[in-house]
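Cross-check.
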Amino acid sequence: MASNQTPTSRLETSYSSTQDILIEMADLIGHKWHPVILHQLFAVGECGFSELHAAIDDISNKMLSDSLTTLEDNGLVERAVVNEKPVRVRYSLTNRGHELKPMLESMIDWGHEHLSNQQSPSVQSPPTAATATQSLGAFSTTDTSTWSRDDE
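Predicted model, tokenized:
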């Protein structure tokens, strides 16, 4: 019997540690807006809140603010107050944030390869009466006026 056999118990290895890391990464990077914000900061370097908000489609001010706070708390984004009149805030990536660039580029590459030909469910237009009728086929012509309560 080989001595380098795969252990049957997760507790015998660092498997649970790996799971913990993956869960933490998914929690941080898996948030809808976090990778988008990080990617924008990679592209422009340092920018203000309004510039960031204008560059990211469909994000609310509150969501951007909350996301920036979370990314800052996790040491990925740095917030610098510029002492000018009016006082401004600039956001940039920390060294730790810059270390995520290869992972985000891999995510983008994978998405272009595997998702670019598929329409996102949130982008699909809602069905119209005509398309709903077509998808129902023969069932769309059923006369429900003759149904009794027992038929339901």
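Residues 133 and 140 are 6 Å apart (CA to CA). The radius of gyration is 25 Å. Passed to J.P. for a second look.
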